[in-house]
Design a protein that fits this description.
Blueprint (H helix, E strand, L loop, with lengths): L3 H9 L14 H8 L9 H21 L9 E5 L5 E3 H16 L5 E4 L6 E2 L11 E9 L10 E9 L10 H4 L6 E9 L3 E6 L4 E7 L4 E6 L10 E3 L10 H11 L8 E2 L5 H11 L1 E5 L12 H14 L3 E3 L19 E4 L1 H14 L1
Helix pairs in contact: 2-3, 3-4, 6-9
Bound molecules: 2,5-anhydro-1,6-di-O-phosphono-D-mannitol (AHM) and magnesium ion.
The site of magnesium ion has 4 residues, from strand 5.
Length: about 350
């Protein structure tokens, strides 16, 4: 930034004042600076974040062209949950998987779009890498055709099976408290990569002209209270009584209420807005989705880790998301996530109605 004194002299002498942008750190610089603060630092985790950064740029390029080329619409296949896969889902899945495999930095990958986990061996056929990545490569993909923000969600764990052996299902079925990193990319009005390695949450915005992410949102924090609630109210009659009661509480004219209702239908976008403005996101059980809709491993755990690192909270309505012991790869759970006091209030209603 230019100093007040120089600005004054320039104006006095009719010189043009050029505003220099403050030079923010790039994501690449930030990763290198923070590498040593990570307790098991060997550079591998940094290389994983770097790969995700690269894949995010490639997917971003394609997402931005979605309306221009013949890329929207169903690919004609269904994923394991029986949902139509969009072409961009398939594309994003391939880009993230290939980027991680090519760089030989993970020993396994689990993806919402794949029925089973992928075992990754090095080019010498060894299994010496330490980390597994779980991801939802393109979340909220039903929004692609209508030009609404979508996202990528990822979660990183250290393997629990011995290094040198192929990964097993146990490496993937770890509770969220074991995560060493998690993050998301939001392909919105601007593209951002937000992540944590357990030392706070930082957000980086892509400058598309030069393809570089810059630190734009350092140390992101949820406010303790918020005024936004995000839920698909079309499912109201199927919600558990505790959620119905909580919604009525949000709508009541009292104190700082009624709250504002905002629902995009892309978890990443709803979460991102609520983290910045203060709010709660809820996807409870419904009769259509008796275990909730969102996946514990690909969506809830990573978002819960980010939420907690930002001072927020994530619950299944009764207890901490990150303490749930997963039993299957594509497990679904109810999800209540956001500003701490709002999540606690929702839990109170759930407990009362139980
Ligand atoms: P997806 O992984 O198939 O895209 O589904 C997850 C999405 C979330 O992003 C979003 O919050 C939720 O599903 C919306 O569901 P609904 O349309 O039932 O409200
Ligand atoms: Mg998803």
């Amino acid at each position: 930034m230019i100093s007040q004194k120089i600005r004054y002299l320039c104006l006095k002498h009719n010189y043009i004042v050029f505003e220099m942008e403050e030079r923010n750190r790039t994501l690449g610089e930030f990763i290198i600076e923070h590498q040593n603060s990570f307790q098991y630092s060997t550079g591998e985790l940094s290389r994983i974040i770097n790969s995700i950064r690269l894949a995010a740029k490639v997917v971003n390029y394609k997402v931005n062209k979605a309306g221009l080329v013949d890329i929207v619409g169903a690919a004609g296949e269904q994923n394991i949950q029986g949902e139509d896969q969009q072409k961009l889902d398939v594309y994003a899945n391939e880009v993230f998987i290939q980027t991680l495999i090519n760089r030989e930095i993970v020993c396994g990958i689990g993806s919402e779009e794949n029925d089973d986990f992928i075992t990754v061996a090095g080019s010498d056929n060894s299994h010496n890498n330490k980390y597994v990545v779980l991801m939802d490569p393109l979340d909220g993909s039903s929004n692609i055709d209508v030009n609404v923000s979508v996202g990528t969600i990822f979660s990183v764990f250290r393997r629990i099976t011995p290094v040198g052996t192929p990964v097993t299902i146990e490496d993937f079925l770890q509770p969220g408290v074991n995560q060493v990193a998690a993050g998301y990319v939001i392909y919105g009005t601007s593209t951002m990569l937000v992540y944590t390695t357990g030392d706070g949450v930082n957000g980086f915005t892509l400058n598309p002209a030069i393809g570089t992410f810059y630190l734009s949102h350092p140390n992101m924090k949820y406010s303790e209270d918020g005024k936004i609630y995000s839920i698909n109210e079309g499912n109201y009659v199927h919600f558990p009584q505790g959620v119905k009661d909580y919604i009525k509480y949000c709508q009541l004219e009292e104190g700082d209420r009624p709250y504002t209702s905002r629902y995009i239908g892309s978890l990443v976008s709803d979460f991102h807005r609520n983290m910045i403005k203060g709010g709660i996101y809820l996807y409870p059980t419904t009769s259509k989705t008796p275990n909730g809709k969102l996946r514990l491993l690909y969506e809830c755990n990573p978002m819960a880790f980010i939420a907690e690192q930002a001072g927020g909270k994530a619950s299944d309505g009764f207890g901490r998301i990150m303490e749930i012991q997963p039993t299957e790869l594509h497990q679904r759970v109810p999800f209540f996530c956001g500003s701490k006091n709002m999540v606690e209030k929702a839990e109170e209603f759930m407990a009362k109605a139980k």
